[in-house]
Amino acid sequence: MSNISIQAFFDHSTFTVSYVVSDNESKECIIIDSVHDFRPASGRIETHSADQLIAYIQSKQLKTVWILESHAHADHLSAACYLKQVLGGKIAIGAQIKDVQKTFKNIFNFEKEFKDDGSQFDRLLNEGDQLKIGDSLIDILHTPGHTPACLSYKIEDAIFVGDTIFMPDFGTARTDFPGGDAATLYQSIKRILSLPESTRIFTGHDYGTDKRKTFAWESTVAEQKKSNIHINDKISKDEFIHYRNTRDASLELPDLILPSVQINIRAGQLPPKEDNGTSYLKLPLNIL
Fold first, then answer.
1. Which residue of 70, 141, 149, 270 has the fewest C-beta atoms within 10 A of its own C-beta?
2. How many domains would you assign to the chain?
3. Do 89 and 83 form a contact (C-beta atoms < 8 A)?
4. Residues 104-155: pLDDT tens digits?
5. How far is residue 216's CA from residue 166's CA, in Å, rounded to a whole number?
6. Are 213 and 248 contacting, i.e. CB atoms less than 8 angstroms apart?
């Protein structure tokens, strides 16, 4: 019998799935890939999505011990800092976030005081590390390819893979962001698919398809190996790399990549306020 409970929260604006995973005995919980609501037209940041997680956690009388990021997202703002202020817990991400910070601090010409050592986060995680909620172990898998810092979190028979792989009828993550690589993503996904076939895979996004009008985010290793449209037992590594690189070359960048990255590589914190007491996001021209 499982010792954990999993509750998913779907954000329709960004098609992001956030998770609260709790240990049934200790009532400790973790949050994976939270969302801050951002209104580009007004520049307002709101908390409706994060407040749903807070309401659930408080209604179940759970204690938040970790606020985890699968990577520095390019399509939504993280609510990690806000959640930590309300619920407590520590914020963690892959140790390779330092590489992402080094890249983007130059793109955005961040303030001189910005540190590219990952110190904005409470803990940097590496392959093979383990965390705990109650007596439940969380195994840390480094699964890069979409970005250098991508992690997957395995708890019992469930693995939370962020943007690495989506539902079988939607495929896999893009690899054209800085530090992304199709061959590396192939290896990461094959590693995930080497787990027992009954392993439950929880994805970080779903966009639906023409044939499937409802949103979904849970599959199994067996389902992915059989029918993922980008990577299955019949598709070779070379075929995957060719398809991924060709498709990525045709994709537009996510609408929120510029505001998201600036916030997310700071662990969900806003940029420092300027002398008028206001924080600003930058819009670099003709770079990306």
1. 270
2. 1
3. yes
4. 999 999 999 999 999 999 999 999 999 999 999 999 999 999 999 999 999 9
5. 9
6. no
User: Is the four-CA dihedral 197, 199, 200, 205 of positive or negative sign?
Assistant: negative
Instruction: Name the residue with tokens 């609408």.
Output: 255
| Domain assignment present for 189 | yes
Q: How many CB atoms lie within 10 A of CB 219?
A: 21
Residue 221 has phi, psi (to 5 degrees) of -55, -45
The reply to whether 27 falls in a domain is: yes
Residues 257-272 have pLDDT tens digits of 999 999 999 999 999 9
- What's the 3-state SS for 53-121? HHHHHHHCCCEEEEEECCCCCCCCECCHHHHHHHHCCEEEEECCHHHHHHHHHHHCCCCCCCCCCCCCC
Q: 194 is in which domain, residue-wise?
A: 4-264
Tokens encoding 143: 């699964």
- Which is it for strands 151-155 and 158-160: parallel, antiparallel or unpaired? antiparallel
Residues sharing a CB contact under 8 Å with residue 225, sequence separation 6 or more, in sequence order: 193, 197, 232, 233
Cβ of 208: how many Cβ atoms within 10 Å?
14
We report the CATH number of the domain holding residue 144 as: 3.60.15.10
Query: Is 165 in contact with 173 (CB distance < 8 Å)?
Result: yes
